[in-house]
Design a protein that fits this description.
By secondary structure, this protein is mainly beta. About 10% of the residues lie in helices and about 30% in strands.
């Protein structure tokens, strides 16, 4: 059944006016338990891994239609391709300034037929490779979008965020990028709702993230990327592309997942009766303290956190509610996995709601029993990143049971 967001918002406001306390709700009361019994297929990485699997970070991964896993390793300037049995098939790209070479690859998109696109944040370029990894062409981007997903049926990408000054896009915009041209020119297909801001974020270019030596600077990425700006608990745009080409997204603090035809009408809205939590004074203080601690640790190797960072954190505003939807991903067959926060608003290991390809709610994987896959593949394949006690990462491929695909 479809329901308008206006009606949903009215219902929530009415409950609040009648003294309804969202914080008193047992958020798991209406969940239908699902079992996280996934069979491990293979793993690659770890301290004793061969050279090709010496991964140093959790990095972007994606499957093709044959079950091959593509691992974008920015620090090795290559894409590692692993077959369904966990064996190395080959690598794509290398460090350099030539055709198909990477300076700092950042995002990855893979089509079912094995074509792939890699965005290079330092070169301001999207590199396109054909099936088998042969370099095809590069498309100039200037400022790269924040996130890219392949258009399932065309030589194009869906991208979140601006691709350059004057394109009318922001981080709540999704555009379609035709890769047949010489430059990235996004065509706006979805403008999501965003909470009003007194001071809009500044536009930045790829060069803003580089230090005086031309290298990517962590501190400048934090500063120029707006990590210290904005509003605590402000709802973010969560989205993914379904196999039929429709886009599923959430853009508010409520539990409402909208499914739309790109550039066209809304198809349906998926709802669950889970209201957002109110932001209290105690939560405000805890959020500020946690953010200061986090950036102090992040910048420890660069001489500590500047006073300016602390001031910016303490001056940030607060959205009045904590968003219910924290992450959204489509399965290979068109189901949806929706991650909610855990006991604390910043807890990333909350329960995961599972909807089938027919948009029917199937049940919930309880917090602590499963995490959101880093990538979904064909035949129920999923990829996860795990780290050992020394923070050495391993990519683990598992297979889902039939009902969870």
């Amino acid at each position: 059944m479809r329901i308008s967001l206006t009606l949903l918002s009215t219902c929530i406001l009415t409950l609040a006016a009648c003294g309804y306390d969202a914080g008193s709700v047992d958020r798991d009361a209406g969940d239908r338990p699902l079992t996280a019994d996934f069979t491990e297929v293979y793993r690659a990485g770890g301290s004793d891994a061969p050279d090709w699997a010496q991964f140093t970070r959790r990095v972007p991964v994606s499957f093709d239609g044959s079950g091959n896993l593509y691992v974008l390793d920015p620090f090795a300037s290559q894409v590692v391709v692993i077959d369904p049995q966990g064996r190395l098939t080959g690598t794509i790209g290398q460090a350099g300034e030539g055709p198909g070479e990477f300076r700092f690859p950042y995002h990855l998109a893979v089509w079912p037929d094995g074509r792939l696109a890699v965005s290079d944040i330092a070169r301001g370029t999207i590199h396109v490779f054909g099936p088998g990894g042969d370099f095809d062409r590069s498309v100039g981007a200037g400022t790269l979008p924040e996130l890219i997903r392949p258009d399932p049926s065309a030589d194009a990408l869906y991208a979140q965020g601006s691709a350059g000054p004057g394109d009318g896009m922001d981080d709540f915009s999704i555009g379609r990028i035709d890769l047949s041209g010489d430059d990235v020119v996004p065509n706006l297909v979805l403008q999501a709702w965003r909470a009003p801001r007194e001071d809009p974020p500044e536009e930045v270019s790829a060069d803003d993230f580089l230090d005086s030596s031309g290298n990517v600077s962590a501190a400048r990425m934090l500063m120029m990327g707006g990590a210290l700006e904005g509003v605590f608990f402000e709802p973010a745009l969560r989205w993914d592309v379904l196999p039929d080409g429709n886009i599923a997204y959430a853009d508010s603090s409520t539990y409402a997942i909208k499914i739309v035809t790109p550039g066209g009408p809304e198809v349906e809205v998926l709802l669950r009766p889970i209201p957002p939590d109110a932001v209290t004074d105690r939560l405000r203080s805890a959020a500020i303290e946690r953010e200061i601690d986090r950036y102090t640790e992040l910048l420890e190797d660069q001489g500590g956190m500047p006073d300016e960072f602390r001031e910016r954190i303490e001056e940030r505003g607060f959205y009045p509610e904590v968003a219910v939807i924290r992450e959204l991903k489509s399965t290979w067959q068109g189901g949806l996995w929706i991650r909610r926060p855990g006991d604390q608003p910043w807890d990333d290991q909350g329960p995961i709601d599972v909807f089938g390809p027919d948009r029917r709610y199937l049940g919930t994987l309880a917090a602590g029993t499963a995490t959101m896959p880093d990538a979904f593949g064909p035949d129920g394949l999923v990829a996860y990143w795990e780290v050992d006690e020394l923070d050495v990462p391993t990519v683990v491929v598992k297979r889902l049971t039939g009902e969870l695909r």
